[in-house]
Amino acid sequence: QAQLVESGGGVVQPGRPLRLSCAASGFTFTSYAMHWVRQAPGKGLEWVAVISYDENSKDCARSVKGRFNISRDNSKNTLYLQMNSLRPEDTAVYYCARAPNKAWHYFDFWGQGTLVTVSS
Amino acid sequence: QSALTQPASVSGSPGQSITISCTGSSSDIGGYKFVSWYQQHPGKAPKFIIYDVSDRPSGVSNRFSGSKSGNTASLTISGLQAEDEADYYCSSYAGSNRYVFGAGTKVTVL
């Protein structure tokens, strides 16, 4: 069955970079656009970024624009989130989620998340 | 993009029906038929339960139903069960390849 496994989280100092990965299995990776969604401790969900199945289209939330970059390697069935210039307010559990290629507006399967803590 | 507005909490007794509202604007909920809902138990990943306002994915109980009127979407849980106790989030497409979530509603089964 489908699996999404995030990794790469941890404790990082403000201003430093971090790269998250999301390994997909059990489904055809290229049949889906992919999103990153985050959840600060005790808070609600916040959409972060989306990328098309072929990387030709990508977009991100205004709160991370210019600092975060979403990418994917279809040969490895893996999604990435490069996070630069991290801020304490970026502290959150980061989830990857898939969306059908013809319906990017819903997230039909989620990973278990990886915690990123930005602190000195 | 501001978060969609949801009540912080809703409660009900087993067997009752409850409704969770999700209010946005004409730029998101009111402008598209692209509202979805997610259930999240503590410490777990969100689970997809409603898409395109009122459609249910395969395997989701028909006790969950969705609707929309103007800028407000709603999720109704009928025949409330103990396992329904969780946080619920709405989401909407907001144009220009942007997506917005609600702040979440905690459902308590009394």
Shape of chain B: globular
Largest sheet of chain B: 6 strands, mixed
Q: What structural class results from the helix and strand content of chain B?
A: mainly beta
Can you give the helix content of chain B as a percent range?
under 10%
Hey, roughly how much beta strand do the residues of chain B contain? 35-45%
Per DSSP E runs of 2 or more residues, the count of β-strands of chain B stands at: 9
Residue-averaged pLDDT of chain B, rounded?
Answer: 95
Elements of chain B, N to C (H/E):
EEEEEEEEE
Binned, the helix content of chain A reads under 10%
Radius of gyration of chain A (Å): 13 Å
Identify low-pLDDT runs of chain A. none
Q: Keywords for this structure?
A:
heterodimer; A: mainly beta; 7-stranded mixed sheet; 4-stranded antiparallel sheet; 52% strand; globular; B: 110 residues; mainly beta; 9 strands; 44% strand
Short description:
Chain A is mostly beta strands and 120 residues long. Helices cover 0% and strands 52% of the residues of chain A. Chain A has no helices and eleven strands.
Description of the molecule:
The complex is a heterodimer of chains A (120) and B (110). With 120 residues, chain A is mostly beta strands. Chain A is built from no helices and 11 strands. In chain A, strands 2, 4, 5, 6, 9, 10 and 11 form a 7-stranded mixed β-sheet that branches. In chain A, strands 1-3-8-7 form a 4-stranded antiparallel β-sheet, with no helix packed on it. In chain A, a hairpin with a 6-residue loop joins strand 5 (45-51) and strand 6 (58-60). The model of chain A has no long low-confidence stretch (mean pLDDT 96). With 110 residues, chain B is mainly β. In chain B, strand 5 (64-69) and strand 6 (72-77) form a beta hairpin. The A-B interface holds A 35, 37, 43-47, 50, 57, 59, 61-62, 95, 97, 103-113 and B 1, 3, 32, 34, 36, 38, 44-48, 51-52, 57, 89, 91-93, 96-104.
